[in-house]
Write a structure and sequence with these properties.
about 525 residues; mainly alpha; Na+/H+ antiporter like fold; 20 helices; about 80% helix
């Protein structure tokens, strides 16, 4: 099969599998891995040769950037202590624990290579966990911790990875050099990312051309990642810093059209990149194992499962010791709820894109021309860990969340309702000020005031009444509005069919109806 045809077939498979996953209520990353595993078992499926740096350089930057862009800076800052503990301390502890296990289970493996494996599988990926959380009632605090951890732990893991690989290739290791490398990577990456974000923000604030703005947006992660990597800093931190900065400034540097279009473009791009990577992950496992002796394949899969168990145990001990116990000792919080939150945080530590990218980016050979030691074993163990954590933890995480009955954040709902009320108050005050300015437009101002008053009554009930009652009324209102919009669409299509308007007029008016429906759904 030609490469173009293979890519097309994989994208079709992604679309089909995601559609099935949503019908079944399963997070799509998990179902894509299952689909990839099943496809890999089909006789005659060709082996997909992936360039070592393809995922690391092309796929990782946009995924990191857009995740950082939509991360609330205020929530990140409020939980920075916990996030830093997980993103730095837990990653280091996990890498060391896995290195010890790898040294014991993989014959002849050196400490640098074992540490490289530890760094590869150390960082959790929040994509599957947040996809599950989006469908269930999960406190915003948990989602914030998972997102923040995933943003920052990649830099820690990849810095350890680069030091370990350099030691494996060159044969030397110095704690002083490693510490200096880590410091330069973090500080330098942050500085480069903020500089790139500042430049991009100033450029975009002077543009009003949506296609050009979207193009610059798509290039921004690479503008931060690649220079940082070339200069010996952390490309991950640079990309995250640029994303956080521009996400915080986005409301001031972009117009409404660029925000709407950009969000749609980025949602599609991240969906395709994630879908492609998770499908490839599942597909590669049976194809790689098929090329090995059965006894060796079983042994490596067993090592991967053992490493997965170690990952869960280390994460559970770390979260218990740094989050659960200290907060229980301090008191002031509901102990059962705190235990439940800690259990979900522990079980949400699934591995994904970063681990796959780092494993595939391992050098294929040493400077003297010899093969990189145990490279094939490291790749298979990593793939086993990704698949095992995604399927084992991912499929049972919804059950755990439901069993613990966490419930959504009442506080977050209250903050949103309070913000809505303040916006409505500001609009109403402005309408009152416009009566003497536009005395000839009292009917319009009266209708606007009635509309905002009606919305204000909804917000009051959202703050006071039970959520199900309010949700039911909102659903009924949406249905009424959707029926009216649908009647406009039908009339528009009739006008085109009767030859009274052409396609350009139809598309312009249809866009207005689409925006109105989008706002209604929001």
């Amino acid at each position: 099969m030609q490469s173009a045809e293979l890519v097309l077939a994989l994208l079709i498979a992604v679309a089909v599998l995601v559609t099935i996953a949503r019908r079944l209520g399963i997070a799509y990353p998990i179902f894509l891995v299952i689909g990839g595993l099943l496809l890999g078992l089909v006789p005659g499926i060709p082996r997909i040769e992936i360039e070592p740096d393809l995922i690391f350089l092309l796929v990782l930057p946009p995924l990191l950037y857009i995740a950082a862009y939509f991360t609330p800076v205020r929530n990140l800052r409020a939980n920075l202590g916990i996030i830093s503990s997980l993103a730095i301390g837990l990653v280091i502890a996990t890498a060391l624990a896995v290195a010890v296990v790898a040294r014991a289970l993989i014959p002849g493996i050196t400490w640098p290579v074992a540490l490289a494996l530890g760094a590869i599988v150390a960082p959790p990926d929040e994509i599957a966990a947040t996809a599950i959380a989006a469908r269930l009632a999960v406190p915003r605090w948990i989602v914030t911790i998972l997102e923040g951890e995933s943003l920052l732990n990649d830099a820690t893991a990849l810095t350890i990875y680069s030091v370990a690989v350099a030691a494996a290739v060159g044969g030397s290791f110095s704690p002083t050099t490693a510490s200096a490398t880590f410091t330069v990577a973090i500080v330098g990456g942050g500085a480069i990312g903020l500089a790139v974000g500042w430049v991009v923000a100033h450029i975009r604030s002077r543009l009003e051309d949506t296609p050009v703005e979207i193009t610059i947006s798509l290039l921004t992660p690479y503008a931060a990642f690649l220079p940082a990597e070339r200069l010996g800093a952390s490309g991950v931190i640079a990309t995250v810093a640029a994303g956080l900065y521009l996400g915080h400034r986005g409301s001031r540097i972009m117009g409404a059209d660029a925000r709407l279009t950009g969000r749609a473009v980025w949602e599609t791009l991240t969906f395709l990149l994630n879908g492609f990577v998770f499908l490839i992950t599942g597909l590669e496992v049976p194809l790689l194992l098929r090329a090995l002796e059965p006894s060796l394949a079983i042994r490596l899969v067993g090592i991967g499962i053992a490493v997965s168990v170690v990952l869960v145990l280390v994460r559970a001990l770390w979260i218990s010791g740094t989050i659960l116990v200290p907060q229980l000792v301090r008191g002031g919080q509901d102990a059962p709820r705190l235990v439940a939150n800690s259990l979900v945080l522990t079980w949400a530590g699934m591995r994904g894109v970063v681990s796959l990218a780092a494993a595939l980016a391992l050098p294929t050979s040493l400077p003297d021309g010899g093969p990189f030691p145990a490279r094939e074993a490291l790749v298979i163990v990593t793939l086993t860990v990704i698949v095992f954590t995604l399927l084992g933890q991912g499929l049972t995480l919804p059950w755990l969340i439901r069993a613990l009955r966490l419930g959504a954040d009442v506080e977050a709902r209250g903050h949103e309702a309070s913000a809505r009320q303040r916006l409505l108050d500001a609009a109403t005050r402005r309408i009152d000020e416009l009566y003497p300015v536009w005395p000839g437009h009292r009917p319009l101002l009266d209708r606007l005031r009635d509309t905002y008053q009606h919305r204000s009554e909804h917000v009051d009930r959202q703050l006071e009444a039970e959520a199900p009652e309010e949700d039911r009324e909102l659903i009924e209102h949406r249905e009424i509005k959707r029926t009216v919009i649908d009647s406009e669409r039908e009339a528009l299509l009739r006008l085109r069919a009767e030859g009274e308007i052409d396609d350009d007029v139809l598309r312009n008016l249809e866009r207005e109806l689409d925006l109105e429906e989008r706002r209604m759904d929001a």
